[in-house]
């Protein structure tokens, strides 16, 4: 398993919905957590490791088929990306509400603010085939 780099096509395509939460998905997500820990990263989307499906991890959370329901506020800050060299200035919402499924297949909603809100929006961009706005 390796992290795909821009301009790899898998990073530029909208990811497909996950149809089932099974043992294979659990294994992949565990491997993703291992990668994030090893690289001291904040999150990782499935398409960054070549899997064109709608899931990612951020902090201790797993997001399967996530949707951002609401965005509030705005801030500009620097971001990096495991799939794109450099640091970029990006505007993001400061508070978000996200609906998603977890690793048990249960529907959840979360409210995030600050850094975690920024990370979730960054990973959502990956699922939608977008890299950091400033780079594209």
Structure description:
The structure is a single chain. This protein has 136 residues and is an alpha+beta fold. It has a single domain, classed as Alpha-Beta Complex (Peptide Deformylase), CATH 3.90.45. The chain is built from 2 helices and 7 strands. It has helices at 23-39, 114-127, and strands at residues 43-45, 55-58, 61-72, 75-81, 84-92, 95-101, 107-113. A 5-stranded antiparallel β-sheet has the order 1-2-3-6-7, sandwiched between helices. Strands 4-5 form a two-stranded antiparallel ribbon. A hairpin with a 2-residue loop joins strand 4 and strand 5. It is globular, with a radius of gyration of 14 Å. The protein starts with 22 loop residues before the first helix and ends in a 9-residue tail after the last helix. The mean pLDDT is 95.
Describe the strand arrangement of the main beta sheet, using strand numbers. 1-2-3-6-7
Number of helices: 2
Helix content: 10-25%
Main beta sheet strand tally, sense and closure: 5 strands, antiparallel
Q: How big is the Rg?
A: 14 Å
Domain unit count:
1
Please identify, by name, the CATH architecture: Alpha-Beta Complex
Task: Fill in the CATH topology.
Answer: Peptide Deformylase
- Which of globular, elongated, flat, extended, rod-shaped describes the shape? globular
Question: Using DSSP, what is the number of strands?
Answer: 7
CATH superfamily: Peptide deformylase
CATH class: Alpha Beta
Distance between the termini: 25 Å
Low-confidence stretches: none
